[in-house]
Structures are given as structure tokens and as C-alpha cells.
Design goal:
The structure holds three protein chains of three kinds.
Chain A (H helix, E strand, L loop, with lengths): L2 H23 L6 H26 L7 H18 L4 H25 L4 H19 L16 H5 L11 H19 L1 H11 L1 H6 L4 H27 L10 H11 L11 H20 L5 H43 L1
Chain B lengths: L1 H13 L1 H17 L6 H26 L7 H19 L4 H28 L4 H20 L10 H8 L1 E2 L2 E2 H19 L1 H11 L1 H6 L4 H27 L10 H11 L11 H20 L7 H23 L10 H11 L1
Antiparallel strand pairs in B: 1-2
Chain C lengths: L8 E12 L2 E12 L3 E5 L6 H8 L7 E6 L2 E3 L4 H6 L2 E4 L11 H5 L13 H15 L14 H14 L4 E5 L7 H16 L3 E5 L3 H7 L2 E6 L2 E7 L5 H9 L5 H4 E4 L6 E10 L3 E9 L3 E6 L5 H9 L6 E6 L2 E3 L3 H7 L1 E4 L3 H5 L6 H6 L3 H4 E2 L2 E2 L1 H15 L15 H13 L5 E5 L7 H16 L3 E5 L3 H7 L2 E6 L2 E6 L2 E4 H8 L13
Parallel strand pairs in C: 3-8, 3-9, 6-7, 7-8, 14-21, 14-22, 17-20, 20-21
Antiparallel strand pairs in C: 1-2, 1-4, 4-5, 9-10, 11-24, 12-13, 12-15, 15-16, 18-19, 22-23
The chains are: A mainly alpha, B mainly alpha, C alpha/beta.
Chain lengths: ~325, ~350, ~500
């Protein structure tokens, strides 16, 4: 069977088991309110995870997605606070900033050939710094979190067309769907898989490493922008620490969902499963009355377990392939 | 010929672009704020980089193996928490108890390192992804140990002594750092184990075939890293007389930044401990200088991020120039100069 | 079947020259390909086959000569030029993307569709049509990782076909295939030929070459040694061409005898599933035992098992009369040494100096309580440089910066500085210039004189005859012939390794 199929079955069963256990053992898990809330809570991370998935499939990682969200959110707040730009203008500027930061990632990884985790770590630092630089201050120099009272922006935090579902949830699933179509049905999507799986043969086929890396990091940055939009819309303000802890959650979601750190494997369906799994786990821990202290530990253990499992599974598959080849050769020896 | 050799040695010692960057930076800060160039301020810089530098003495081993250990901060938080909880809740602030607590805290670091070593030596996993995740687990454990409460007023003679005494005007943790550096330096440069680290980091398969017990080498490296992280956490708790559930958070970024800026190859197998220390110093000087210039510490991340990319870009250019790849980019004067030197 | 196209010359290389550091790797070589033929390129290792192929595919520039395609002179400067001319290589090390499907792999980099979208349905259909036309046993939407090695190779061939390749180069295509899979490949090759595709076929398996080829060109020492049409193929004649008639008897053969000293190492019925089977031999003190045969015959794997680097399933390894279960560190302590096949990935740490590399095997002597005695270490480095005559004679150079021959010498230095009892040497002279080769042979001879038991793996027959006291030929994991008494000639060994034994050698293939 395909390695990805096996992996999908595993992550999907984990999710189903978790849902079943929670539905049976708690009485308020499977309620509309709880589910709507749950989907709302995981969506911002989910949008980031969609972006990070592109990067991981191309065989890399992005530690800066959360910090970039913070920066973009601050750009929006700052421009709203200090300029007379229209909302469209503000959002365009913010998008431009995001694209530039994404391109910086792409430049460091693609052109300068700095390892992903160092490059994106540096950009993460730069983003955090920029967020502080842009922060709105009182005349005394204190950072304040100004309220953004613009209906268009706060509208992003609202519900979708009169339904009880939040817009951000729709955006998450919509982006995941778009991402899935992009990965599986466009030329560049195929190129991302090829580059992640086997850089050399991808380059032999005329695919440019720099272009793919640029693209995935810019896509990830655009996702950070979209996530920032919804987060700012929901909170009607932003904080200097916004998003800093989200990078890890986004990476976790993608990895649990089956995006392989070796590159070339994974997709948006997996990422959605992974993100939901993490959120439901968190939700369930609350339902069980476990102190929030245990959340970090348990979700951390799940991701560590998944990483080790993936490594062991990859190794097992490799061994199986070599063994199959060896047995094939053995048969040949017997015949001749 | 002899001159050639000498310049080569200096380069090997620190990676001379770093020295130049450091000197330029120091000159700049001295001009801007003469107070920068004083003994007192240098002690301040040393003190500021101490904790990071102790962590580097351990994390360096993992990086030399081509890995990375982001759990230095989690280990520090864990050991700080273990120590403070034990001292305050079990040993009633006694000195003897403090020693036992410190030993147990160090043991916690060793154990965490052992876990990482076992996994990293067995599986092909990107070290940063694993340690990124296990670091969260460690902080999770810390939250549980501390009950997510600040444990303060650590009213214990021994820890107070470590945290606040100065010998000859220099804080005790700086001496601890000095000791760690000397031990680390000796291990890396004068022991069989140090030789094996470089060999395994440079080429694991060849080392294996030469009879080096590569798994053991890797496990010990991560244990060293865990131990140093724990030691650094103890120093931190001693200085602050407290432990919190989020202490030392993000220190790993500084550690990593210092090691990378210090010219240690992220692919493993090359780099020196003194180089990494120089990297730490460089970042320390930068932060100190910026602070003296009245720029608040919240901006320093920005500067750090830029300096990592800048230094690595310099390296990249040097490599490109050496291999002649960059003929298009670095044409002109530099090349002529090089040729002139060659013709001499 | 294919008479229609035969005879029409499609592609021609005339007087091709290639010089590597003053050595003529190719000396006025002529080679042409007719439309719809299987043209085998034969020659021993180092005869210039791969250099010719690399010029043909634009990897190396030629230093002289002309290339014609359909009578027009062309320049092949890179891979794209070759592809544009319809020349495609079927890669030996498969270059497919495992997680993508067959059609995605084939269309990679040249996807069809509008607005950036892939028209998957059309691609799938087109590729399936292509597959059906040739009747390959694969489907267009299978994922590559689920395919067998042979099927992956078919995908490579399809990839070439999809670029309208007119000339396909197959380099040892059956090396990792089973018998049944090889037969399917032969069928495919015949089909391709019938469709008018020309195939340049390189293989050490003479049997299959004789069966498949319409024509054989033999290269020897970078020169044309002969060209034979299918009707005129006589196996023994071809082998003579490969070896060269003008070689004097003394260099082309060697008298062998089993050493009468003590047995140092004995291997009894050693087997490892899929790699080698029932391998038994003895090595005496001071003897050079050579394991020869084709690449993939299981020789390297036997060496690695003896050294403890790989496991074995059954059998015994007896060292100095005692059965041992080898582990690398124990083996090294007992006086074993290994000079591995691929020195770049297995032999040395490229970033470290010669001294440091040499020292990796010597810490048992250099260390005192875990500390390295730097003076002793430097001494050792100097000693090693002296022993192996390293150039530059500087123990502080970084090994990665040395030339291939000197890198190999540095690897030798790791072991020559130890008191060895058994040394296992795997293809020691691949990619090394002639001068350094001779020096390495001298080291091997010296080691034997000192009483070390040497097991050397080599595919280079001249090398085998130069150093061996005794020769074992392996084929497909088994020992098929041992030369221990009397005279062995190049011809004997070549025939034995490529599957002809004893009387068969004078018998034509069909």
C-alpha cells in the first residue's frame, strides 16, 4: 500500500478514536455550541498550518509563521491608528509586508542556502522585532493595544452569512481546499512535491529550487496575513506577543497530519486532520477537568510520538523495499 | 610561508569575519557611548552572556554532530523548577538539601539528554524538529511541577551565595562559565571523545567503519547538552531566587544564534567552542551596546535576526568566491586583488 | 522484423578525443548508431565507455572530433542539447519521485494544461496510451513507490519515450533485476528496436549482450578495438578484443598458488539472504586473496559482513582458529582493517586533517585515560604521511582538499599505522590516476610481505592479476570459480565473471 495512505489511515483513526472517546465519555462534547467554538478556536492555527504544509512538503520548515502573523497584525493596527488609509489600502499594505517577509525567507533558504530552521528562526526574530518597532505607544512610551473599531476589520471575526459558523472557520476550510487543489492539480503543486522528495531529479526535470522555495515561503506568508486578518478581526486589537506561540502549533498540526519532515509527502486533508486533532485534544482535556498545565505536556507528547513514529515507519518502509529487492535477486540466483 | 600559516591559524581560531564584525561593533559603541569601553561594562556583558554561554558549552556538542538541541531552555526551566521545588518544599531551605536538589536537577538534565541521544542516534529525524517538540514537553513538565506558579523567595544560603556573591568583583556564575568552557575546551580538543565528535559530525559512516562507537558518541553529546542546560537553569534560579514555569524561554534561540554566528557549521563537523563563545560575546556586545544607546531590549531580536542572516550571507559569499561561482556577483576589484596577491 | 530501418546511420561520433590531465581517455574514437538497432558498447573498466557516454550526453565537453545527427554536425554542450537531439539516458540509479504517480513522474517539468493547472485526465490518458502501445505491465496512475525495481525502470524508459527519444542509453540496466524481470526488459528492448528506437547498451554480462545486440563496438584503453555485426559474434573473439591481443603474456596472466602459511581467517558457508550464499574460503597469513566478479556479485557485502559492518544470516567466521561474531570495534581491536568502496562517503571525514583522520583508528594507542597525547598524534600523522608518501607531505592538510589518489592514501594511512592482521580492501583504485594506482599496489604487496592476510575486492582485471596470490570469482552471490594453482589469464577471469565457465567459452551463444 502507498505510504501516504497508511499514514492517512493512522492519523484519521487517531482523530476518530479521540472523537468517539470524547463523545461517549463526556456529555457536552458533541453539542453544536462546542463544535462551533472548537472550529473557531483552531482556525487561525489551521490557516497558518496550511501555509506551513507547503513549506514542509518542499522539504523544509517554517518557524516564522506565527511571528509573521504578529507583525502583519501590527501593521494593520498601526496603519489604522496612524494613517488615513482606507481599509483596502491598509490590507494591501499588510499583504505586501507579508509577501516581502516571505520572500526574505525564500531568499535566505533558496539563494543563500541557509538551512531552513536557521533562516526562518532569524526571520522569526526579525518579525518579533518589527512588531515591537511598529507597536502603538502612548506619549509616555508605553505600548498600548489600541482598539480597532472598524466594522470591516472586526467583521472578519464575525459569523458567516447569517449561519452560526464563524467566518474564520470558513476561511480555514476554504484555504485548505484551495491549497489541496493547488498541490494536487497544478503544475507548481506537483513541482513542490517533486522538489521535496528528490531535489536532484526535480532539478534535472528543469524545476528551479529557488523558485519553489520562494513560492512556498510566500504562500506561507500569505497564509500568515490571512490568519492575522481574522485574529485581529476577532480581537479588534493586536498585541506585541500575538502569534508567537502559534508557529509550533501549526507545525505540529501539519506533522501529525502526515506532512513528512523528509519532504515530498503530506497534503491539506492531513493538515486539517492534524489541526483538528490537536484542538479536540485540548478541548477534551478541558472537558475532563484536567488542569491546563497538562495540555502542553500531552499535546507535546503526541507530536513527539508522531515524529518518532514517522521516522520508525520510514525506516521500516525503506528496509522492506531493500528486502524485497534482495529477495527478488535471490530468486534470480536460484534460477541461474 | 610562516606568515601565511599564522593568518590561517587565526582564521581557524575564530573565523576572522566575526572578529572584524566584533571589533567594528565595539568601536562603534565606544564612539557612541564612551561608557561602553569600561571594565565595569565588560563585566556586565560577561554576566549577561553567562547563562547562554553555559548552555553553548553543551549545545555545541549536538551542533558539532550536525544536530541541534533546542531543549537547552526546557532543560534549564526543568532543573530550575526541580531545584526550587525541592529546596522550598522538601528540604526546608537547608544547604545540604540544596546540594541534593542541585544534583537531582542536574540529573533531570542528563535524563532528558539521554532521551534525545537515544532517539537521535537511532532514527533519522531532523534534530530541530524533535527538540522543538520535546522542548514543549519539558515546559509542560515544568508547568506541572511548579503548578504554573512562581516559586519565589528562595531563602537558601547556598543558592543565594551562588546567585549574588562576587569574587574579585566578578559574579560566581561567570566562574562557573569559565570552568564549563575550560572543561568543554579540553574535551573537544584534548580527549578521544572530542576527536570522535568531530569525526562523527564530519562523516558518521566513515567513523563507524573506523571502529568509533557512533551511537555512544551521539548519546553522550546530547547528555552533555542536557547537563549544561540544567546547570544554566540552576544559575538562573540562583540569580533570581525563583523559578517560573516559563523561565529561560527562548534562550535556545540565542544559543543557536551565538553558535551559528560563531562560525560553527550547522551541517556538523567543523567549528570551535571558542568560536561559539565569540558568537555569544558578539551578541552580548550588541545587546549591551544597543541598551547603552537607549534602545530597549525588545528590539534586540530584530538586530539578532539580521546579524545571523548577515553573517551567514558573508559565509555564503566567501564559499562562492572560493569556488569561483560568484564570478558574476563579485567581479571586479576583489578578484583583481586576489590575482595580484597570487602573482606575488 | 526490423530490416526496414536497418543500415541507415542516425548518429555518428567521429574521431572523438578526450584528455584528462595529459592522459588520453578517448583517442580518436569512432562510434555510430543506426536507426532501430541495439548497439552494445563493450570494454573493461577504464576502457572509455563511460567517458564516451558522458560526451554523448553533454556531461563532458569533447576535446576533439565531430558529432553528427542525421548527417548534420551538432554540438552537445549540456543535457538539454542531448535531450533536444532525442538522446536520453535510462538512469541506473533511479531518479524518480517515489511519492508521485507514474504519469506525474513522466510529465514532470513538462506538464500539460492551461492556467497553471494540470490536465491530469489528459496526461493520464496519454501516458496510459503510451504504456499500452508497448504493453508494459504498469498503470499510469500507480504511485512509483509501490512499483518493483523493474517497473521503475520501465517508467524511466517511458520518460525517455515521452520526450521522443530516438537514442536510449542503457547502462547496466539488469544489474538490479531478477531473471524474470530481465527477460521482460529484453522483450521491451526488442520492442523499442522494432519501433525504430536505437539503443546503446552497456553491460558486463556478455551473455545478454550477445543475445540482444545487433552490433557490438569494443573499446580498449580509450581506442576502438573492434566492431562486430550480430552475424559475426564469436564470444571468445570479443573477449580477446576487450583484453587486447598485443598484451604480452606476462601482464595478462599470472601464476597463482595457495600459500602454505598458517590460515589467518576462514569463512565457512556464510550466507545473507539476497546478497550472497554459501561463501567459503580461507586466507593465509601473507596472502593476497582477490574476490572478483561483476558489480553486484556480493563481494562488497561479504567483506562488510566479515568486518561486522553488516549482518549475515548463517555460517561461521573463524579468526586464528576461533569462531568470532564480528562487531566493528572488536574487529578493529583484533587487527582487522577495512578500506571501503566509496572513500568519499565511507573512508574519511572530509573536514578533518590527515592527522585527525589517521588518528581515528588509533586512539587505543594515542589515548591515556581518555586524553589524547597531541605529540603522539602529530607523530602518528607525520609517520602516516611518510608511510603512504602523501602529497603534499603535510599531515595538517584537510583531507577533503586532496586529490583522489592522495585521499585514498590517507585512508590507507589509517590502517597502515596499525599492527594489522587482516585487511579488507574494496575497489581501492577506482577514480585514481595510474601513478597512484601503482603505489597502492605496492602497499598491498608490502602488507602481504609483512604477513598480513589481505582480501581485496576488485573488478579491474589488470589489477586482479597484478596483486593476487589467489583469485575467487563471484557471480550473483556465489563463488563460481577459484584460481589457486597454475596460471590464470585475463580471459579466464573475464569469462568466469560474465557467466561463462570452463568449456562454454568456445561455444557460441546460440
Amino acid at each position: 500500500m502507498k505510504q501516504e495512505t497508511v499514514r492517512r489511515i493512522i492519523s484519521f483513526s487517531l482523530l476518530v478514536i479521540l472523537i468517539v472517546v470524547l463523545s461517549v465519555t463526556t456529555d457536552n462534547f458533541l453539542t453544536a455550541d462546542n463544535l462551533i467554538n472548537l472550529f473557531r478556536e483552531c482556525s487561525v492555527v489551521g490557516i497558518l498550518a496550511v501555509g506551513v504544509t507547503f513549506v514542509i512538503i518542499s522539504s523544509g520548515n517554517n518557524l516564522s509563521s506565527g511571528a509573521m502573523l504578529g507583525t502583519v497584525a501590527m501593521v494593520i493596527a498601526r496603519l489604522y491608528h496612524s494613517t488615513a488609509l482606507s481599509v483596502t489600502g491598509i490590507l494591501l499594505c499588510a499583504l505586501l509586508v507579508a509577501i516581502c517577509l516571505g520572500a526574505l525567507n525564500g531568499f535566505c533558504v533558496g539563494v543563500l542556502q541557509i538551512p531552513d530552521y536557521i533562516a526562518t528562526l532569524s526571520v522569526q526574530m526579525i518579525c518579533q522585532g518589527l512588531t515591537y518597532v511598529l507597536a502603538i505607544r502612548t506619549p509616555g512610551g508605553q505600548i498600548t493595544n489600541e482598539i480597532i473599531n472598524n466594522a470591516t476589520i472586526t467583521g472578519f471575526g464575525g459569523k458567516f452569512l447569517g449561519t452560526p459558523i464563524y467566518r474564520v472557520t470558513v476561511a480555514f476550510f476554504g484555504l485548505a481546499l484551495l491549497g489541496q487543489i493547488f498541490l494536487r492539480h497544478t503544475k507548481i503543486g506537483t513541482h513542490i512535491y517533486a522538489m521535496g522528495s528528490n531535489r536532484k531529479s526535480a532539478e534535472y526535470s528543469g524545476i528551479s529550487f529557488v523558485r519553489v522555495k520562494m513560492l512556498v515561503f510566500i504562500l506561507s506568508a500569505v497564509c500568515s496575513f490571512i490568519a492575522a486578518l481574522y485574529l485581529t478581526g476577532r480581537n479588534a486589537t493586536t498585541d506585541v506577543a500575538s502569534g508567537t506561540t502559534l508557529s509550533f502549533q501549526a507545525i505540529s498540526g501539519a506533522v501529525i497530519g502526515g506532512a513528512s519532515f523528509a519532504g515530498g509527502r503530506g497534503d491539506m486533508i492531513g493538515t486539517v486532520i492534524g489541526v483538528l486533532f490537536l484542538q479536540i485534544l485540548k478541548n477534551g482535556l478541558l472537558k475532563y477537568g484536567l488542569p491546563p498545565n497538562w495540555q502542553l505536556l500531552l499535546s507535546g507528547l503526541v507530536i513527539v510520538g508522531m515524529i518518532v513514529f514517522d521516522a520508525a515507519y520510514n525506516e521500516y518502509m525503506e528496509k522492506r523495499t531493500t528486502k524485497a529487492a534482495a529477495i527478488a535477486r535471490e530468486k534470480k540466483g536460484a534460477k541461474s | 610561508m610562516s606568515e601565511n600559516k599564522k593568518s590561517f591559524d587565526i582564521k581557524k581560531l575564530f573565523g576572522n569575519t566575526r572578529i572584524i564584525v566584533l571589533l567594528v561593533m565595539m568601536a562603534f559603541f565606544t564612539i557612541m557611548r564612551p561608557r561602553f569601553f569600561t571594565y565595569g561594562n565588560f563585566v556586565n556583558i560577561m554576566y549577561a552572556v553567562t547563562l547562554i554561554a553555559i548552555m553553548i558549552c553543551g549545545a555545541m556538542f549536538a551542533v558539532l554532530l550536525g544536530g541541534i538541541d533546542r531543549t537547552v531552555s526546557g532543560n534549564a526551566a526543568l532543573s530550575g523548577a526541580i531545584m526550587c521545588v525541592l529546596i522550598s518544599q522538601k528540604f526546608n531551605y537547608s544547604n545540604g538539601g540544596a546540594i541534593i536538589a542541585i544534583l537531582i536537577a542536574l540529573g533531570g538534565g542528563l535524563l532528558s539528554g539521554l532521551f534525545h541521544g537515544l532517539i537521535m542516534s537511532r532514527f533519522k529525524i531532523p534534530a530541530f524538529l524533535l527538540t522543538l517538540s520535546t522542548n514543549e514537553v519539558l515546559y509542560g513538565i515544568v508547568q506541572i511541577i511548579t503548578g504554573n506558579q512562581l516559586i519565589n523567595n528562595l531563602n537558601c544560603e547556598l543558592t543565594n551565595y551562588i546567585g549574588s556573591t562576587r569574587w574579585l568583583g566578578i559574579p560566581v556564575p561567570v566562574y562557573v562559565l569559565l570552568l564549563c568552557f575550560i572543561i568543554g575546551y579540553i574535551i573537544l580538543n584534548h580527549t578521544v571523545y572530542g576527536r570522535q565528535i568531530y569525526s562523527v559530525g564530519g562523516n558518521r559512516e566513515a567513523s563507524e567503519l573506523s571502529g568509533i562507537p557512533t551511537r555512544r558518541v551521539i548519546i553522550i553529546a546530547y547528555m552533555m547538552s542536557g547537563l549544561m542546560g540544567a546547570l544554566s537553569g540552576i544559575m538562573l534560579s540562583c540569580q533570581n531566587q525563583q523559578a517560573s514555569a516559563s523561565q529561560a524561554k527562548n534562550y535556545e534561540n540565542n544559543v543557536l544564534a551565538a553558535i551559528v554566528v560563531g562560525g560553527v557549521s550547522s551541517k556538523g563537523g567543523s567549528g570551535t567552542l571558542q568560536g561559539a563563545m565569540l558568537g555569544a560575546l558578539l551578541i552580548g556586545v550588541m545587546e549591551n551596546g544597543l541598551r547603552l544607546m537607549g534602545i530597549p531590549s525588545i528590539y534586540h531580536d530584530l538586530a539578532k535576526g539580521i546579524i545571523i542572516i548577515f553573517v551567514l550571507a558573508l559565509d555564503m559569499m566567501a564559499i562562492a568566491r572560493r569556488s569561483g561561482l560568484a564570478r558574476g556577483i563579485f567581479s571586479g576589484r576583489k578578484k583583481e586583488k586576489k590575482e595580484a596577491v597570487a602573482s606575488e | 522484423m526490423s530490416e526496414v530501418q536497418r543500415g541507415e546511420v542516425l548518429f555518428e561520433m567521429k574521431n572523438i578525443e578526450k584528455i584528462f590531465s595529459h592522459v588520453h581517455a578517448l583517442d580518436h574514437v569512432n562510434f555510430d548508431v543506426r536507426k532501430g538497432e541495439v548497439h552494445a558498447l563493450l570494454g573493461e573498466n577504464g576502457a572509455g565507455k563511460s567517458t564516451l557516454i558522458k560526451i554523448l550526453t553533454g556531461v563532458y565537453p569533447k576535446d576533439g572530433g565531430q558529432i553528427f545527427m542525421e548527417g548534420k554536425e551538432v554540438e552537445i554542450n549540456d543535457r538539454d542539447d542531448a535531450l533536444a537531439l532525442g538522446i536520453a539516458v535510462i538512469f541506473q540509479e533511479l531518479s524518480l519521485i517515489p511519492s508521485l504517480t507514474v504519469y506525474q513522474n513522466i510529465m514532470l517539468g513538462k506538464e500539460e494544461g492551461k492556467f497553471g493547472f494540470v490536465n491530469a485526465r489528459k496526461e493520464k490518458k496519454d501516458i496510459q496510451d503510451l504504456i499500452d502501445r508497448y504493453g508494459f505491465p504498469v498503470t499510469a496512475d500507480a504511485t512509483v513507490e509501490t512499483l518493483s525495481v523493474a517497473q521503475k525502470q520501465m517508467v524511466e524508459i517511458l520518460k525517455a519515450l515521452s520526450t521522443n527519444a530516438r537514442i536510449m542509453i542503457m547502462d547496466e540496466p539488469t544489474a538490479s533485476l531478477s531473471q524474470r524481470e530481465s527477460e521482460i526488459l529484453y522483450k521491451i528492448i526488442n520492442q523499442l528496436r522494432d519501433q525504430g528506437v536505437s539503443i546503446i547498451y552497456i553491460s558486463h554480462r556478455l551473455e545478454e549482450v550477445f543475445n540482444l545486440s545487433d552490433r557490438i563496438t569494443v573499446l580498449r584503453d580509450g581506442k576502438n578495438a573492434g566492431e562486430v555485426e550480430k552475424e559475426d559474434i564469436v564470444p571468445s573473439e570479443i573477449v580477446k578484443m576487450m583484453i587486447g591481443k598485443e598484451l604480452s603474456e606476462s601482464t595478462a596472466s599470472r601464476s597463482l598458488h595457495e600459500s602454505d602459511t598458517e590460515v589467518e581467517l576462514e569463512v565457512k558457508n556464510l550466507s545473507r539472504l539476497g546478497y550472497y550464499e554459501d561463501v567459503s574460503f580461507k586466507v593465509h597469513k601473507g596472502e593476497v586473496l582477490v574476490l572478483t566478479g561483476l558489480v553486484g556479485a556480493g563481494r562488497t557485502e561479504v567483506l562488510r559482513s566479515i568486518y561486522g559492518a553488516d549482518p549475515y544470516d548463517s555460517g561461521e567466521i573463524i579468526f586464528e582458529g576461533k569462531v568470532i561474531k564480528p562487531r566493528i570495534s572488536d574487529a578493529v581491536a583484533k587487527g582487522f582493517g577495512l578500506i571501503p568502496e566509496d572513500r568519499r562517503t565511507q573512508g574519511f571525514s572530509p573536514l578533518l586533517t590527515v592527522t585527525r583522520n589517521v588518528a581515528t583508528t588509533n586512539y587505543d594507542k594515542l589515548a591515556h585515560g581518555g586524553f589524547v597525547n597531541k605529540k603522539d598524534e602529530d607523530e602518528l600523522g607525520k609517520k602516516a604521511v611518510e608511510i603512504v608518501d602523501l602529497r603534499p607531505a603535510n599531515p595538517n592538510v584537510v583531507v577533503g582538499n586532496l586529490s583522489g589518489g592522495n585521499q585514498q592514501k590517507a585512508v590507507l594511512g589509517k590502517w597502515l599505522t596499525r599492527d594489522l592482521k587482516v585487511i579488507l580492501i574494496d575497489e581501492p583504485t577506482v577514480g585514481i590516476d595510474i601513478g597512484a594506482k601503482d603505489e597502492i599496489y605496492e602497499f598491498v604487496e608490502d602488507l602481504a610481505k609483512q604477513g598480513v592476510a589481505v582480501i581485496l575486492v576488485s573488478s579491474d582485471i589488470a589489477e586482479v592479476l597484478r596483486v593476487a596470490h589467489r583469485i575467487i570469482v563471484m557471480r550473483e552471490g556465489k563463488i563460481i570459480k577459484e584460481f589457486k594453482d597454475g596460471v590464470a589469464t585475463q580471459e579466464d577471469i573475464l569469462l568466469a565473471s560474465s557467466g561463462f565457465t570452463g568449456d562454454e567459452k568456445e561455444v557460441a551463444h546460440e
